Amino acid sequence: MGIFLGGLGIHNFYLGYQKKAIIQILVSVIGGVITCGIATVAVQIWGLIEGIMILSGSISVDGKGIPLKD
C-alpha cells in the first residue's frame, strides 16, 4: 500500500500510525497546492521508501507494537 498510495498515508492508517498518516495527507494536499505539486512528489517518495522498508522488514511492528506477519 505504501508503494502505491504512499502520498496519502493510507499504509500508515492501516498500520495504526494515525498521526504520521494525517501529516502525510496534509503535506501532500496543502503543501502540494502551495508548492505547485513539489510537496506531493516528496510525500510520494516518502511513501515509496516506507513501502520498501515494510517489505524489507525494516518496519516490523504496527502502531500498537504488534509484530507484522509475512
In short:
This protein has helices at residues 2-5, 10-15, 18-34, 38-56.
How helical, in percent, are the residues? 55-70%
Question: Number of helical runs?
Answer: 4
Q: Please summarize the sheet with the most strands.
A: none
Shape: elongated
* Backbone structural class: mainly alpha
Structural domain tally: 1
Write down the Rg: 12 Å
The helix-strand sequence is: HHHH
Distance between the termini: 15 Å
Bin the strand percentage: under 5%
Query: Count of DSSP E strands?
Result: 0
Q: Average pLDDT value?
A: 93
Which residue ranges are poorly predicted, with pLDDT under 50 across at least 5 consecutive positions? none
Structure description:
By secondary structure, the protein is an all-alpha fold. The chain has one domain. Helices cover 66% and strands 0% of the residues. It is built from 4 helices and no strands. It has helices at 2-5, 10-15, 18-34, 38-56.
